[in-house]
Records
---
Amino acid sequence: MSYEYLDKLKRRLAAEDRQLNLYIRTYGCQQNVSDSERIAGMLKEAGYNYITEPEDADLIIFNTCAVREHAENKVYGHIGNLKHVKEKKPGAIIAIGGCMVHQKQVAEEIKARFPYVDILFSTNAIKELPDLIAERLEKKGIYDTTQTERAEIEEDFPVVREKAYRAFIPIMYGCDNFCTYCIVPYVRGRERSRDPEMIEKEFREAVVAGHREIMLLGQNVNSYGKHLDGDMNFSKLLARLAATEGDYMIRFMTSHPKDASDELFRTIAENPRISRHIHLPVQSGSTKILKAMNRSYTAEQYIELIERARKIIPEVTFSSDIIVGFPGETEEDFEQTIELVKKVRYQSLFTFIYSKRSGTIAAKMDDPTPHKVKTERFARLLRVQDEIASEFDTVYVGNTYRCLVTGVNDNGITEARMDNNAVVELDRAVPENTFANIHITRSEHHRLFGEVRD
Ligand code: 5AD
Ligand code: SF4
């Protein structure tokens, strides 16, 4: 591959007297991790040496998240810390991309508070980044490409995969749903689907490269194909990909319940290479709150959907996202969320306290509930889920599952993941990125332990 768009930076880096180091820090969701893998791929190909600590870096990139205020504050803190790095190494270049900088007021704030930031780059046009870096190496100044909307899909990237066992493959970008609490449609732009031929090409390459887990990504994978010509949808894409020969497992994230169809469940049931675990965010168990969130389904419809999926794929497990303390959520609404969680019995849950995002519709809603009440509700929800998760753990003990070995944890213990994403600590070392039959021997405080069986 030639990657002509890298030529300018390649020439510029070749003229340096030494190889320059690149450091990337990624915040937020898997879509961001996937973008960073492409940014790393491009810049490595152009000549940068990819390192894992910022101190020795000549180019520092932050790929940011805007979903909650907490994530943003973390980024501001970390950009603040870069002042010392820049003082020690004035020639270092700092580039900030990701969802945060697509908000105009944030881009302005970064420029005002941190004048040592060199580049703000568009997440929807990362191919422009190499030229921006080359220009900045030539000439000091602030380079900003974040405030232009772009709808074109970029292809043809070298990719550095973060993990050996997993390949992220984006299938669609953006979101048209405008859930009232969510900033994503404003920062990621309108929904657009990648060409199925390009997805299939990258998919086959990932299988040949030996990645055992292939994760298809999109803010709303179930609406894949909506704007493409021809007869294409997510179920058809999945079936087409799962026909590829090889020993691997397909996962996908994230599904919106309003677009999850029986056709999708049947496709999963018919293809053993597709994971039997679905992340299906419900957000709330109160129909009133779901309406205020603009989620387009009622609590009853969501439960019916889960029941239909279980009928079609009996072994399926679910995980979910839930927001606690959305504006106007009463005690009764919250109790309905608890009821729903108990009814559905999620294998795992990602819970968030509502965070006001300026520019969204919910930001203008009355929000009289004190923060303390919200944190209490949050803790109650966690306790309920903890109990459910422990019951799941007890069921696993004594059974054997085919798991994917994901590497060694900080304590030097090899870990593997079950199909439902539960992590198991193994009794002996097994190479990363292999499937192994693991007999679950015990569970303790949400940790599972297992023996490798041949
Ligand atoms: N406040 C809290 N949580 C949010 N999420 C998205 N926007 C917000 C917000 N403003 C959560 C949703 C979504 C997940 C990725 O983040 O649950 O599914
Ligand atoms: Fe945000 Fe809703 Fe789109 Fe998910 S579906 S990215 S929560 S607007």
Note: The chain is about 35% helix and 20% strand.
---
Amino acid sequence: MTERSFEVIISTTVCCKGSNEEKSMEISRLSGVGAEITGVDIRHLSDNEYEGIKSAFTENGLIFFRDQHLTEEDHIAFAKRWGEININRFFKANDKYPEIAMVTKEEHQEQNIGGGWHTDHSYDQEPALGSILVAKELPESGGDTWFTSMYKAYDSLSDGLKETLERMRAVHSAHYAFGTKSGDKQSGGTGGRIGNADAADALENPVHPVVITHPMSGRKALYVNRAFTLHFENWSEEDSVPLLEYLYDIAIRDEFVTKFQWRPGSVAFWDNRATWHYAQNDYQGQRREMHRITLEGCALG
Ligand code: SIN
């Protein structure tokens, strides 16, 4: 995979007027999904920079930073600017900072966390806003994260299908990914998880609209995903499969996807309500350690 398997299509400069800074932050919208932001140190943001970043996040649902030097405290401080931190129930926490979930794959592990298309926390009644992922240790090659846009997936549907889906809701669940139904994936922390399957089983399955109006952007986005959506409300799982599979195929069309290649100092901040992501598991025998902070969200309508 090349360094840039995506293409910058718009580049905007956000000046730091009103502050003492001389440099200016640049926001480059990528052709698949997301925007890359350069010329900024996210440990020390001026109000103008923060507002520019917030607009980029709202508009694109995904932002990337390069060459950041974040300690765990910096990571937590940046996250707190966006809202309340969700303490992860299924992944191992950082030894010193419970706010940070460890997304680690050890040399001897075969499975990774997030190794399939999904959006996090759709199994919650109030799904998390999104996550801020910081690269700590990377394999020599591989370990990219792929992202896709659920705004673009929705926009690409025909008007008739949009209208039908807008009247529908779907049942989501953590039972199969994290609960006892997930089999031996839970035991012994395989893939970096902790074995609290009973907590997953105890969660009541939420019902969310299939098309949500995004709480920040006001745009419509498709809100089902292969990892956690069980079936449409009042439809059997069997009846739901063909339409869900059709939507899942549309969601990962090449033109909606950005393949993000991590480097030391890279940070990704994604919106769970507007994107899906997929951590590539193509670096067997090597270690990868990422630090993830997830932000609390709200009920979706
Ligand atoms: C995840 O949160 O699904 C993991 C993403 C990654 O490790 O790239």
Note: Residues 184-191 have pLDDT under 50 and may be disordered.
